[in-house]
Each structure stands twice: as structure tokens, then as C-alpha cells.
Amino acid sequence: MFKKILIANRGEIACRIIRTAKKMGIATVAVYSDADARSPFVLMADEAVHIGPSPAAQSYLLADKIIAACKQTGAEAVHPGYGFLSERTSFAEALAAEGIAFIGPPPGAIAAMGDKIESKKLALEAGVNVVPGFVGEIDDTEHAVRIAEEIGYPVMMKASAGGGGKGMRLAYSEKDVREGFEATKREGLNSFGDDRVFIEKFILNPRHIEIQILGDQHGNILYLNERECSIQRRHQKVVEEAPSPFVTPKMRKAMGEQCVALARAVGYFSAGTVELIVSGADPTGESFYFLEMNTRLQVEHPVTECITGIDLVEQMIRVANGEKLSFTQEDVALKGWAIENRVYAEDPYRGFLPSTGRLVRYNPPVEGDGVRVDDGVAEGGEVSIYYDPMIAKLVTYGDTREEAIDRQILALDQFEIQGLGHNIDFLSAIMQHERFRSGELTTGFIAEEYPEGFGGAPASPELLRSLAAIAAFAATAEADRARRVDGQLGKRLRPPSAWQVLIGGIAHDVSLSGDEVTVDGETLDLAMEYTPGDRIVDAEIDGKPLAVKIAKSRTGFALTTRGASHKVRVLPAHVAPLAAHMIEKIPPDLSRFLLCPMPGLLVALHVNEGDKVEAGQPLAVVEAMKMENILRAEKAGVVKSVNASTGESLAVDAVILEME
Fold this sequence. Notes:
Largest sheet: 9 strands, antiparallel
Oligomer: single chain
CATH architecture of the largest domain: 2-Layer Sandwich
Shape: globular
Radius of gyration: 27 Å
CATH class of the largest domain: Alpha Beta
Strand content: 25-35%
Structural class: alpha+beta
């Protein structure tokens, strides 16, 4: 077995690999850029080597620096994780030339399947169903338009070397192709060093199913069941689960065997994933098509580990060391249900714009009892503009799908992140959504269920009454502390027992007497503790657990739970009537300004001073976290002034232009 391995990656996947290596008694080497100098994975590794500036193109994407680090530390093998150099044939070949093992598939398989254009050609030759499309070089935008019209809209434009949702654009019309083709090329070049694009038919109402493959160097190849990855936004996976609520045993066997045959055709070994698109309208599962093969470990591999009990990182290391798989296809288990939510640094309340900054507070839920957290950040650390915006992967496991979902909801309520925008509320809303819980999933789920964006999960009347009770309980504790402070209020003054709690525009009358709490005359069985300064309340209401993040405000609290944050006004019952006489502050109208919604680079400006614009017209393009974001006009008007220039780095809310 290897004595020392180097991890050519960063963040949560680097931490994940280091944990398994330590379990196996293998020493680890981390490589890091300037931005990652104090990151957790650097501290976890036995050794760490600095490899360059923060941009990935100047550090993590430079194979020669990785190889130099191996020689410097004596690392015998390299695990590439995912992204970066994980699917770069030249990197695997360069390692082999230096006598360093690559913990992944052979270079030939990477070349055959890592290129999405070539892999489709191979799949066709192998008799595998592929999505109709143009498999070849596309000259320019005009060529792309002709191809799209021949295939028939809608079509998907994809970077040939793409992955992780980057370099993908959906086009419903010629206008979409003209707007998106060049952007797809740029994203492919910036993220993967390859600007080739291919176009294929977009299957309506599709489900995204993928098969986990594992093979050794002795010709043994197995499939480790499937994962459902249909919940996506902008073609980036958000929620993954294993198994799929749609796949039957017959489908699982057919898909698995076909994927194994494809892997065998290219001499594959190590872990890999074959991605399939399935028509949700066909319950027989016969209408499934090959999309691509990812010749690496997937972000969502933990859900497969949960239901099979197989450590995929360990198996990859053993396979790279020349060992045979110690189990057969018949030994592969399928036990229970696992769900993974990707916690991203993005603001769902502002159109899911990327969010960067310092993690002022980072406190994930406690692991154990069906909860697993894979992360690579720590409180006080920074989510920078240079890398992927994923903060953590929250995985829950249960005997049933419903149990795994309910554990997700509770764990998300207990997940504390402050300092930047995050999607925890949005993830909780998905977990509670009736359509998700029923398993009726397609890749259009988010666009269909949140067509106007996300404004928080709706709260039931029962939940609002529960929050009113919690707010009154906390207000009583705050008032009790105030009276105990020397010189304030007097120790004999008792806290109010009757409160008016305004939440969701509805006023609730709450009274507390001993252990009894009544809301609007209805008694609740409330069990909780609260000490002023607590950030999370773990309550039990009528026998059901409820975790609530709580922050004190001037007139009450901000309570966050079950996918939404609620501003709660809490006043003593005898004071509440006076609130009607308070004047509300009206916020200023900023609609005439085009503000930069996130820190980023202004890569394009489509208008000049004096230009007339229409509502919805593209005005500018800002790049952040390797993704281009088109900023459009909210309403028609004339450009009064332009305040920024192409190539300029902008802060959040920087004024790009002003309308008359």
C-alpha cells in the first residue's frame, strides 16, 4: 500500500480524501494557493506545499507544480478529487512518466470519456442510446444557429470539457443561441481550458439519473446502484439522493449493465459515473439516454456510500495500488435512503447571486444519528471569488426516504451560517415541498415551482402560532434578565405574562402562566429552554421537534426555521395598541440604478449613455465564481450615465449605470 499520497485539490473534497487516507494509515500531502493558506484541509494534512497565487490557473491547474510537490515530499500517488486536473489526460500521463501513481482511471479512458464530443461517438459505436444532437466541431455562432434549427428547439449548448454545471446554456430560440453560444465558449475556456461546444436536443420533463461505476485493474467492473440528481438550478445539481424514487429493480439492472458494458469498452477502472437522462413520462425506464461519463469521483458520492456501506475513496486508493475488488456485484447492498443537499454561498432571495465574504459564524449540525457533513471551511474563514461557491454537503440517511427528508429539514434548521448569503432556507423549502416529497421530480423542478424566484418557504398557521409562543417565551426571559441588572427596572418588577406577537402580518395573543402557554386561547405543549444570547432554540411543540435560529431585534426577534426568516414584533399586551401610532420608514427608490448584485468582474457592457432600453434587455455581464451573470433592465428608459468600465472589478451594490 502507498505510504504517502498527495491530494491535488482543495476544500471539502481534500478534507474528505485526507480522512480516509488517515483511516488507512497513509500519510497525506496538501497543496494550496494563497487564498487557501489557512484552510482546514491544509491543517488536516501531514504536510502542505504552497503552489502559487489564488487563481486556479496559476496554482491548482498547473500539473508541473503538483508533480514538483510530489517530488519534494516523496508522495507516491496523487488523488485529484473532482474538477481541476481530475479529468485531464495530460496530467495522468505526466504522473505516469514520473513514476507517480494516479488514483483514478487510465489515461486512455479519460481521453475517451472525458471529452463529451468523443464520448458520444464512442457510445454510438458501442450501441448505447445517446441524446440526438450534433457531435462535432462548431465553427461559430451562425453555425450553432443552423445546427440548433436542424435539431429542433429546445437545445442544450455544452462545453465539451465541461462539468459541475459550468459551460451550459439552454436555448429555446435563435435569440437564446446567439446570446449564449459565445458565453458557453468563454466559460469552457476559463474553467477547463477548452472552448469547444456541442449541441444536443433537450429532453422535456427529464429526470437525471446516474450510475456509480467501480472497477479494478483486473477486469472486474461493478455498478453501485443509482443516484437521482434531477433537482438542479442552471444545470448545477442542488439535491441528490440514492436510490431514485423513480427507478425500478428492472430499470436499475438494465441501466447498470449497459453502463458497465460502456466502461468495459474503454478499459475503465477506478470510480466513475455514467450520467443518463430519462424521460419521466416513461415508467418502463426504456427511454434512457447516455449523456456523459465523468471519469472521477462525483460531488454526490456520499449518498452512494450511505446506502452501500462502501468507502469509494478507499476503493479508489486500493485499485490504484493494484488490488482486486474484494466484493462482487451480488455483494453490493442497497439499504435505506440517503439525501445530499449542497449548501452554497449564494443568495436565493436575490436571484441566487453568488455571495462571497467571511464566515463570521459557521456552525454545522452535529454529525451522527443519520447526519453527515462534508465541508472544507471553518468559522472565520473566507469564501473567495476564485473557486466554487459550495460551502458544505449536508447528507442525511434513514431507513426510508421520508425519514431521510425529515432529518434534512431538522439538520438545516440547526445549520448556522452568518456573514454571507447562503441557500439553507431554499434547501429546506425543497425538502418540505409536496412535489419533492412525492418523488415527482424533473430537472425543471426549480424553474417550474419557483418561476418568480424564491421568497422563503410558506409557513402554516400552526408553525406561526408555534413561533409566536417561542417569541413570547424568549421575550419573557429577556425581560427577566433586564430586571436583574443592578439599577434597571427593579428586582421586584415581574416580567409581563401577556404578550402580543406580530408575525406574518397577524397579531397573536400569547400568555404564559407557569408551565402553560396559550396562543389565541389555544394551549400548546411547549418544552424549550432559552437564555438571552442563545442563537438556536431547540424546542418541542406538541411532541414534535423544532429548531429555530433566533436573533434579537429592536422590537422583538428574527426567527429562522423551516425555510424562511420571520421578523417578529413582541410587545407587552398593554403596550401593543400604541404601536399603531408609530410612523413607518419608507425605503428609497433605487430602481433607476443598475447595481452590481455581487462582487465580480464587469466583462461586458451593452449600452452607452443616451441609449434607449426596454424592460428585460441585457445591459451588462458580470463574472463571479467562474459564472457569467447577465444583468437586465427592470423597466424601459434612457441611460443617463455609465459609472463603470469593462474589465473593472466591482463591489456588491456598486453603481454600473443610472437611468433617467
